[in-house]
Structures are given as C-alpha cells and as structure tokens.
Write a structure and sequence with these properties.
Radius of gyration: 19 Å
Low-confidence stretches: none
Shape: flat
Strand content: under 5%
Number of strands: 0
Structural class: mainly alpha
Number of helices: 8
Length: 193
C-alpha cells in the first residue's frame, strides 16, 4: 500500500525477487556462521551475511516503500501521517547501509567487529523503520485518528510534535550508537535515553 499512497504502482514480483533472495541469503549466511568452525571463518561468513542483508534492506526500502515524494493519493489532512512512512523507509535505507558497512568491515578484518555500526543499524530499524511505520500507519487507519482527520482544521501541535520528537529520537539514538568508543559510556547512555 505504501507505493500507492505516493502515486506509484506496487513493484512487480520480478523486481522484488533479487533483493528478497539477497536478504534470505544474508540470513542463511548468518545462520551458517553459528555452526562449529574456526572463529575466523565463522566471523567472515557472518560479515558476508550482514553485507548481503544490508544491501538487500537498502534496496528493498525504496523499491517496496517510499523514500521521497508526497502522498498524493491521500487526502490533504492525512498527508502529515505520510511523513512517518517516509522517515521509516529512509531509516531502513540507513540501516541497510550501516549493516552492509559493518558486514564488509567484518569480512575484510576476519573478525565480527563494527559493534557501533551494528548497534546504530538496530536503532535505525527499531526506532526508525518499525516505530515510525507503526505510528504513521496507525494515524492512517485507526478510527480515532480518522475521525480527527474528518474535521476541517490543520493538524494540532501535538500531532505535528510527535513526528519531530520521533525523528529527533531516531537521530540521537543512531548518533549515540555510532559514538561507541568515542564517548564516555555514561554520557552515551544519557544521550540514547
């Protein structure tokens, strides 16, 4: 439904299969890396799995979601909720890039490193993709929000502030995760919270 909000057709299956297969290959490689083998081999396989999953995630978000544009198929009063969807999909692209970077780093080093990158990717997925999509889609489909949109008035301050507070939370959490090892641990935790 997300591409339709933005005036695009749902992508055909033939376009979604390659990134979907790459994502599944990445997950399979991560599972294989847990099998008994030398530490270097297991960590290199895990790095390759993260790289595949990251590339696929960054590929799928703009393909099956929306990372730019306006939700022209939504009524003007409902378009504010589409911001959540856009930022959620952008966070998925960011998470994919971070996972690919962490995977390539682990693959090159032969050790499962890049903790800060993996942590930032987790925050980008958790706060960005998952929470922002839940909030955005809830505003589009939940009856309580639909009734408030029926009124001919601009969005209230509390409706607009949720988006900006969540976006700020996403940015702070990702930046704090990337600062792992470059900032005092206590201060970093305060920044995240």
């Amino acid at each position: 439904s997300v591409p339709v909000f933005f005036g695009r057709k749902t992508p055909p299956l033939r376009k979604a299969v390659p990134p979907g297969a790459l994502l599944n290959a990445g997950v399979a490689l991560l599972a294989i890396s847990l099998l008994p083998m030398s530490d270097t081999a297991g960590q290199s396989i895990a790095g390759l799995g993260l790289a595949c999953a990251g590339i696929a995630t960054a590929w799928l978000a703009p393909l099956c979601g929306a990372v730019r544009g306006k939700a022209t198929r939504l009524r003007p009063r409902a378009r504010a909720a589409s911001q959540f969807v856009l930022v959620g999909n952008l966070a998925a692209v960011l998470a994919g890039v971070l996972l690919a970077w962490a995977g390539i780093d682990s693959l090159v080093r032969g050790e499962f490193a890049a903790t800060a990158l993996r942590d930032a990717a987790r925050h980008s997925i958790g706060v960005g993709l998952i929470t922002m999509l839940i909030l955005g889609m809830a505003q589009l489909v939940a009856p309580v929000f639909a009734l408030s949109r029926a009124e001919a008035r601009p969005p209230a301050l509390w409706e607009r502030s949720v988006f900006w507070l969540m976006t700020a939370s996403l940015i702070l959490r990702v930046v704090a995760a990337l600062l792992l090892g470059h900032m005092d641990g206590q201060a970093r935790l305060h920044l995240v919270s």
